[in-house]
Amino acid sequence: MARIVQKFGGTSVGDIDRIKNVARRVKATFDAGNQVAVVVSAMSGVTNQLVDYCRQVAPNYDFREYDAVVSTGEQVTTGLLALALQELGVPSRSWMGWQVPIRSDSAHSKARIEGIDTASLITEMAAGFVPVVAGFQGVGPGNRITTLGRGGSDTSAVALAAALHADRCDIYTDVDGVYTADPRIVARPRKLDKITYEEMLEMASLGAKVLQTRSVEMAMKHRVLVQVLSSFTDSPGTLVCDEEEIVERQIVSGITYSRDEAKITLIKVSDRPGVAAAIFGPLADANINVDMIVQNISEDGSKTDLTFTVAKTDLEQAIAVISGKKDDIGYVRLVPDPNVVKVSVIGVGMRSHAGIAQTMFTTLAERSINIKVISTSEIKVSVLIAEEYTELALRALHSAYGLDAA
Amino acid sequence: MARIVQKFGGTSVGDIDRIKNVARRVKATFDAGNQVAVVVSAMSGVTNQLVDYCRQVAPNYDFREYDAVVSTGEQVTTGLLALALQELGVPSRSWMGWQVPIRSDSAHSKARIEGIDTASLITEMAAGFVPVVAGFQGVGPGNRITTLGRGGSDTSAVALAAALHADRCDIYTDVDGVYTADPRIVARPRKLDKITYEEMLEMASLGAKVLQTRSVEMAMKHRVLVQVLSSFTDSPGTLVCDEEEIVERQIVSGITYSRDEAKITLIKVSDRPGVAAAIFGPLADANINVDMIVQNISEDGSKTDLTFTVAKTDLEQAIAVISGKKDDIGYVRLVPDPNVVKVSVIGVGMRSHAGIAQTMFTTLAERSINIKVISTSEIKVSVLIAEEYTELALRALHSAYGLDAA
User: Rounded to the nearest 10 degrees, what angle do helices B72-87 and A63-70 cross at?
Assistant: First the structure.
């Protein structure tokens, strides 16, 4: 007998028939003799509708009230799934965040879970019940309802699995696992049987949308075995686990891309101590995250070009901030470029294999794709290229690293 | 300065524009220097949709999960109205039933309020906030969400007004007050400036849908001054109050009708002790309420005809129950009749004026309308007639009692 947390996303509970289908899956796991706790998202589309209501009423809405409104989506599916399980003869009840309770901080709309009191759930599971817990929500100081940010139900599920010391956390979604690359672009992607936490974290951060980044961080921290799989098929999915558990390691596990980047180049910046602080200090003050940074070699030792990337949605504001500090910084011209994409090659095998980056640069050069910025970490290489080359670069790299499925 | 509870029903908060309109009304009362607490229903149509979801998932749903699901409708409007008030510069926050808390018993889907802890709300109002409280919901034993039954938001509002010792409870609805008769049937109904609790209770019980019966009972018990008015106009509405507060009393205040009745006649019942218990005991056991009962005079002292009414929705079941007990009861034939309507004349003036019933009987007789059953109380006379005469009877009675507006 194992203790398993199962999480079902918005498309998996998108209508009444799908909720009934989810109930059948839960029942199968339960009937096999396991203890099961379920976490659900809102029916797909519902959260967007509720957010839209808030925006219509108050464009700059109070996040506390926003949380009260949008958390109802999960409350509905939680109750409905408990009903569907009962209908199949599985004893079940719904649990809202405040009922468990799932305690969070007060950062409304993007709260962090501080603790989960599992006593009631454990008693209930021992008594043969399947608790259905509302994802995405918690209860903050003063008994106010909080939400965990978009995709927060993944985090709810992993946090619950950690708190319950569950043997596994199954994340049911609309794809049947983690692929070496986006199947909409690459013709023969391969589904990974296993992937390490570190790789999954890079994949999630670098554009793969299959799991929310924070949920992977939490799984890694608490060593929660996570399985990503589809609620629409019976194929086994991808296991996110410790490196030791993966026998046949790939050197490269996946290739991701992100179109959310924009590039800013400052031409002829004075090459003096403190200039980086003069640029990135004001951006940080404006809550603008800077991702990649590259400083070109200064020809005469006095002036240099400096390039960095920000989220595409922050580009306008970043231009305004930098332009406002032009005299402090001392540059000649600001050149923005929103038409870029960040392509990343990810794999723990890089730690022990040289030449991974070289393969990437050669492959892109052979297609005459110019690399604008490079950044690397222990297990990934990212390059910024012109957006129009996205598909070409992904397909070429996927083949170059031998990732194409047979 | 007064303390006022304002309640807005489903049509009053039916869409975003209407919610903004409600916020303007609340602001006006608040700006006039009053302490205001608001109670809201779900947006019209939402509760029906949620009930429908439950039915689709589980035709015989667990009322605890039903309550978790349907209570979300009020949660959404509560948050949205708090946002709309903030947007107008009125400090406000939402309160769910469990947050106040509004404590109820465990009779899920038709729970009764047992107590309201008003300390937080009173502190908040004193600090210049307008609390927006979710109607229709409470929290029962074990921290489970409960709902109070359809129309329960009226009860929430009156209970809150009683607990807060409010000076008045304003119930905003889609009609602008209580009328002497249904304006869809009677051409010149008159809006009542004031009506007694007793009359309003009879009106609500006997078919007028303007207020939920239980909310009137509660207002009467706690002597809460209730005003019924429209959120779409600025006319003053109808005050529900003590008899002493009404200077110019009408003899008859209103005429109602209910098509929810069905009649059953048992032909040639043995006229012996215990026969009534043999009939009505099994009906009570089956949770079927019997309203009017009339026993005809037995010709030879051994057999009699017995007529009674039940809710139209209970008719089939009542027939089955009685038929199953035919031998115990001893009757020759059961004659059901669903095509009846109960017409009632209501007024506290009946206590001191004779001839009210006589006027009713004469008026109906002049139109050749046959009375099938009669029942009376201190302040009302009800008759059962064939449904096809509904409009004719109402119009004739409305004129006969001098209720037509000038």
Answer: 160
CB of B101 within 8 Å of a chain A CB? The answer is no
B/e letters for A301-334, b = 16+ CB within 10 Å, e = fewer, are: eebbbbbbbbbbebbeebeebbeebeeebbbeee
pLDDT digits (tens, 9 = 90+) for B286-312: 889 999 988 876 666 678 889 999 999
pLDDT tens-digit profile of B221-270? 999 999 999 988 888 899 999 988 887 777 899 999 999 999 999 998 88
DSSP H helices in A72-132: 72-87, 119-126
Across chain A, mean pLDDT equals 93
* Predicted TM-score of the model (pTM): 0.87
Cβ separation A80–B53 shorter than 8 A: yes
- Does an H or E element contain A39, and which? strand A35-40
Number of residues in chain B: 406
* Identity of the residue numbered A341: V
**Which tokens hold the place of B360?**
């009713």
Q: How far is CA B325 from CA A1, B266, B283, B284, in A?
A: 53, 12, 10, 13
Calpha distance B231→B26 (Å, rounded): 10
- Taken in order B4, B7, B12, B15, the sign of the CA dihedral is positive
Q: Cα dihedral sign for A297, A301, A305, A310?
A: positive
How far apart are the C-alpha atoms of A225 and A171, rounded to whole Å? Answer: 11
Pick the closest to residue A14 from A48, A45, A43 (CA basis).
Answer: A43
The residue extents of the domains of chain A are 3-174
Whether A119 and chain B come into contact, CB under 8 Å, resolves to no
Binned at pLDDT 50, 70 and 90, residue A234 comes out as confident
Cβ pair A68:B87 closer than 8 A: no
Look at residues A26, A6, A35 and name the one whose alpha carbon lies nearest to residue A128: A35
The pLDDT, as a whole number, for residue A126 is 97
Mapped onto helix, strand or coil, the DSSP state of residue A332 is: coil
CA–CA dist A63, A110 (Å, integer): 9
The mean predicted confidence, pLDDT, of chain B is 93
Torsion of CA A281, A283, A287, A292, to 10 degrees: -100
Rounded to 10 deg, the angle between the A63-70 and A46-57 helix axes is 150
CATH for A3-174 (3.30.1780.10, 3.40.1160.10, 3.30.565.10, 1.10.101.10): 3.40.1160.10
**Closest-CA residue of chain A to B15:** A53
Residue B194 has pLDDT above 80, yes or no: yes
Torsion on CA atoms B155, B161, B164, B165, rounded to nearest 10: -130
Cβ neighbour number for residue A289 with a 10 Å cutoff: 11
The answer on pLDDT for A109 being more than 80 is yes
Q: What's the confidence (pLDDT) of residue A301?
A: 67
B120 CA: distance to closest CA in chain A (Å): 11
Residue B173 pairs in a beta bridge with B230
DSSP-derived letter for residue A348 is G
% chain B with pLDDT above 70: 99
Indicate the pLDDT class of residue B98, thresholds 50, 70 and 90.
Answer: very high
Interface of A with B in 16-35 (CB under 8 A): 16, 19-20
The alpha carbon of residue A317 is apart from the nearest alpha carbon of chain B, in Å, by 25
